[in-house]
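User: Fold this; tokens only.

Assistant: Input:
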Amino acid sequence: MDRLDTLRRQRGSANDRLADTVRTTGWIHQTSLLAGRLLAQTALSNAPTTTDGLHAVALLRRLAEATTQAAGHAADTISALAHGDTSASEHLLGQAKDALARTPVAVQDVGAALLRHDGFLYAQERAARDQTVTGSAAVKVSEAQRKGLAVFARGDAVVRTSYSGVREVAMPLGVHLRATTIDALVDKKLVDLTVLQGPTERYSARLTSSGVRTLLEARPVPSLPTAVPAPITARAGAPRPAGARR
């Protein structure tokens, strides 16, 4: 995104801008290939066996589409500059940026969804070997609480108390759970917090038997993939590069 902003702010002739545009286009193209490869690998894995895994696949599909659109616009930018049309190149760079607008958030959402997918599989494995899970009662939880259970299910999460006195997830990195969600899971005795040694107030978080049973029996609320802008059609009267794809 920063590279595209830099290109749009560049001044000079079309030839002066062409080299940087080619490099940026190559980067976007490689990103598009990576997104497509990750989509294929995830779709062929066990991800589609859980709701959160399916959500990750849907997000990756949208990411692959968005990066492909951006790569196409960037390629058209090179064509415009090759014909000396700097006005059209700026317009096309704007379209490429718009196509990538929500991708950073979507990437984080993919990681979170796959983490919850793994957590659900861990819970299934624990239930298969731990008889106390079978005898435990499931508790009604909200969707946010279900997601929290899936995050904690692997048993490697760490919760800390922030300077403002509220609980937050320290590990895994990039996980965002509301303090009220963590508190509710602890209050419902679905999650156990064990104090860890150290200078700060940190706890290891692990599902109780009831927490495992609740996670496995909870009915997930289907999530809509993070919105990724659709390709922008050329406006009437907008500059069009010579030789652009039709």
